[in-house]
């Protein structure tokens, strides 16, 4: 240990610049690695927090035409399915219809003014068994008692502090369909951020929806038996699905399919209709970036270690003369490398901790607090030590295996093996940097293309928000109040936000053929509000809300695909009164699909409100909207009023975060690569001072010497570009495949990458070499 500490002190004393650059480079690399891996950890660990998570599956029906997967089923059908296969251990459901993501809960003795907002969900009792809720106090067996509820630990602390909440009562504001007061029977451990189950107040769904075959608002999940055959279970359940379809429609074919999708896979399934999830390609892209940055740091470490070799040769050979074995020398050199990486890792953890309050944390879905990722930090620490071992082992063996004559002369720096090794290592760094630059530019261009893409809907001067309990007839007073404001031009409603991956899926029989389409409930003025062009038929009218049979308007894609005529009748749905021009009702990852807009009676709840503002300054109108909502629903938190442009942008938040992360860390990779170049140039100019001085004596100009150094690295950059360009093209092309609508890959981004690297490399080399090239040659020769 004493020898190790002495060597480290001597290392810093001999070359502070190289040592500090080495530690700084490793610190930045480890910090970047951990930041990227926090997002990867979040994505790959999604929904893996439940006991037996690998045995939990979602019951999904597959749409025949599109292949999409629906995650909701009629409850009567699903309950029969649970009892129809021996491979199913248990199964449960949640009701989308009865839940609310933002409900004010309070202790009755303290009044509504002390309310804390929380989610509210109704689930079947078996739902708790499927997901293995972990109770901290109380008894889940009391869940089915009248007006019983379970709450998360975080809410229990907010409402009751250190008191025991079990047996106590909580209330929610009046005006909800369900009971206003609940008795707490258990407190469960909070689920992590990367879980589809929210930390809601849960109460029993009981017998609701058990007789309603037409209501598809309940996602069902099952826990299968150990080593169960999933395909066999699907075959067991499929006849029931066919019989259900036959009961609903006598002419139905056997085109319906039921699939069991693993909970761990469902998050990454792009085919799911009502399940927001991740992108596996994006996650693996980030993982690749993290590993590439680590690789660049390892290369830098090796380069710096080798660069310091000439200064250590005499010391190493002197130790050999006094009997120190090569094995012990190698162990000491590797231990030095491991110690340096350990110090760099600790500095990296402190750096990440210091970044918690910066804007960088918004790019990572789960946050960047190291304390939230104990497993990741432990693994990263192991990787850091392994990195030090790997980065130190080659230089240690190489330095101690050199011939004494070469070592004592200190000419390893100019030997052919030394040069070749440095060129290969720098070439790898340049290639990685250019790949990341090209990918970052391509992702940025695609995101800009998405933002500017015409989706067939207005974006300007429209704000939107969730109505919550004011949906249905309760929305009328709010609409009248808003329309009384001269700054507000119009108001309309829809069941969900107009552009969303989730929605209601329908399968009907039309002209003796099955047709599949998405169904969106809207207000009568919705089409005119959104500026939709009517292709055929008529628009909705106020009287459509008073009809016995609802009115429907399909889009042009549905008309082309199913040969829809106007007017016509759609069995079990209503009258087709019109056709509108296509618009994008899903993110641009997906193509335009058949969609039907439908106007129900006034009691049917429409949750999403849109307000068109005709004042150049929208601030007063937005304040008026908030105040109007607060007046009509004083006990509920005022909803977040967002511009439609912002809401549409949120659909691509992950892509935007990916763009910013890749751009940021491509800069990090270039910086690390340039740091490595700086170290190598520092090494070369120091070892070639005599050569440079002799060239000056024999008439070489400063510019010629600078060109001599630059020419080598310019050639390396151009060769690396020939490797990086096709590799980056493959990566970009594969990533763009996840979008149905994508921009062509412009050729200029491939030219930008080598241009950026060349400019930086030439600048660094010129600045570093200029001092050596302009030194007094006589002094340099005398010194050497």
From TrEMBL:
Residues of the ABC3 transporter permease C-terminal domain: 288-404, 664-776
Transmembrane segments: 20-42, 284-306, 333-355, 375-400, 421-443, 661-681, 716-736, 748-770
InterPro entries, alphabetized: ABC3_permease_C, MacB_PCD, Macrolide_Exporter_MacB
Organism superkingdom: Bacteria
Key words of the record: Cell membrane, Membrane, Transmembrane, Transmembrane helix
Pfam families: FtsX (PF02687), MacB_PCD (PF12704)
Listed name of the protein: ABC transporter permease
Source organism of the structure: Alistipes hominis
Lineage of source species: Bacteria, Pseudomonadati, Bacteroidota, Bacteroidia, Bacteroidales
């Amino acid at each position: 240990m004493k020898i190790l500490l002495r060597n480290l002190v001597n290392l810093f004393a001999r070359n502070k610049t190289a040592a500090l650059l080495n530690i700084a480079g490793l610190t930045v690399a480890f910090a970047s690695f951990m930041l990227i891996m926090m997002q990867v950890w979040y994505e790959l660990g999604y929904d893996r927090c439940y006991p037996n998570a690998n045995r939990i599956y979602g019951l999904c029906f597959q749409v025949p035409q599109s292949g999409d997967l629906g995650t909701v089923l009629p409850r009567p059908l699903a309950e029969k399915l649970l009892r129809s296969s021996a491979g199913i251990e248990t199964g449960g459901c949640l009701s989308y219809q009865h839940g609310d993501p933002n409900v004010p809960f309070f202790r009755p003795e303290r009044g509504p003014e002390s309310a804390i907002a929380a989610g509210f969900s109704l689930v079947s009792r078996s739902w708790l068994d499927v997901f293995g809720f972990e109770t901290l106090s109380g008894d889940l067996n009391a869940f089915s008692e009248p007006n019983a509820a379970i709450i998360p630990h975080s809410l229990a602390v907010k409402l009751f502090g250190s008191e025991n909440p079990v047996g106590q009562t909580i209330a929610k504001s009046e005006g909800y369909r369900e009971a206003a007061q609940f008795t707490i029977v258990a407190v469960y451990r909070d689920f992590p951020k990367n879980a589809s189950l929210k930390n809601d107040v849960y109460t029993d769904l009981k017998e609701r929806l058990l007789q309603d075959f037409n209501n598809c608002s309940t996602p069902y999940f099952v826990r299968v038996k150990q080593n169960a055959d999933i395909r066999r279970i699907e075959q067991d359940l499929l006849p029931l699905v066919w019989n259900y379809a036959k009961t609903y429609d006598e002419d139905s074919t056997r085109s319906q399919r039921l699939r069991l999708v693993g909970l761990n896979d469902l998050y990454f399934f792009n085919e799911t209709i009502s399940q927001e999830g991740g992108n596996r390609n994006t996650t693996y892209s980030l993982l690749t970036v993290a590993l590439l940055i680590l690789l660049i740091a390892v290369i830098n470490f090796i380069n710096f270690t080798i660069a310091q070799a000439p200064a250590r040769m005499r010391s190493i050979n002197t130790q050999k003369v006094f009997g120190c074995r090569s094995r012990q020398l190698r162990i000491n050199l590797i231990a030095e490398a491991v110690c340096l990486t350990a110090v760099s890792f600790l500095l990296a953890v402190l750096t990440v901790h210091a970044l918690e309050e910066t804007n960088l944390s918004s790019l990572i879905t789960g946050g960047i607090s190291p304390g939230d990722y104990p497993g990741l930090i432990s693994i990263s620490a192991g990787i850091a030590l392994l990195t030090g071992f790997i980065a130190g082992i080659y230089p240690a063996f190489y330095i101690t295996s050199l011939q004494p004559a070469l070592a004592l002369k200190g000419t390893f720096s100019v030997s052919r093996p030394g040069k070749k090794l440095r060129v290969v290592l720098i070439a790898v760094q340049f290639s990685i940097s250019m790949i990341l630059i090209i990918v970052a530019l391509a992702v940025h261009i695609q995101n800009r293309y998405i933002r500017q893409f015409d989706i067939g809907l207005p974006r300007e001067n429209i704000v939107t928000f969730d109505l919550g309990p004011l949906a249905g007839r309760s929305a009328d007073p709010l609409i009248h109040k808003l329309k009384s404001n001269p700054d507000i031009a119009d108001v309309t409603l829809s069941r969900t936000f107009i552009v969303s991956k989730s929605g209601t899926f329908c399968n009907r029989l039309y002209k003796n053929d099955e047709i599949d389409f998405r169904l969106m409930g809207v207000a009568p003025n919705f089409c005119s509000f959104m500026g939709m062009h009517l292709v055929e038929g008529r628009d909705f009218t106020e009287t459509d809300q008073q009809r016995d049979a609802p009115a429907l308007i399909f889009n042009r894609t549905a008309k082309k695909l199913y040969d829809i005529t106007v007017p016509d009748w759609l069995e079990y749905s209503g009258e087709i009164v019109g056709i509108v021009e296509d618009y994008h009702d899903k993110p641009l990852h997906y193509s335009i699909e058949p969609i039907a807009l439908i106007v129900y009676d006034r009691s049917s709840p429409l949750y999403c409100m849109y307000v068109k503002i005709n004042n150049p300054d929208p601030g007063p109108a937005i304040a008026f909207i908030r105040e109007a909502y607060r007046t009509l629903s004083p006990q509920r938190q005022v909803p977040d009023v967002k511009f439609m442009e912002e809401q549409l942008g949120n659909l691509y938040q992950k892509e935007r975060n990916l763009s910013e992360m890749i751009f940021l860390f491509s800069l990090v990779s270039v910086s690390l690569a340039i740091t490595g170049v700086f170290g190598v140039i520092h090494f070369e100019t120091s070892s070639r001072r005599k050569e440079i001085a002799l060239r000056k004596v024999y008439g070489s100009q400063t510019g010629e010497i600078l060109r001599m150094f630059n020419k080598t690295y310019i050639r390396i950059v151009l060769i690396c570009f020939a490797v990086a360009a096709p590799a980056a093209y493959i990566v970009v092309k594969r990533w763009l495949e996840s979008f149905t609508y994508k921009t062509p890959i412009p050729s200029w981004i491939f030219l930008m990458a080598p241009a950026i690297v060349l400019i930086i490399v030439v600048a660094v080399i010129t600045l570093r070499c200029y001092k050596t090239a302009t030194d007094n040659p006589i002094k340099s020769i005398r010194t050497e």
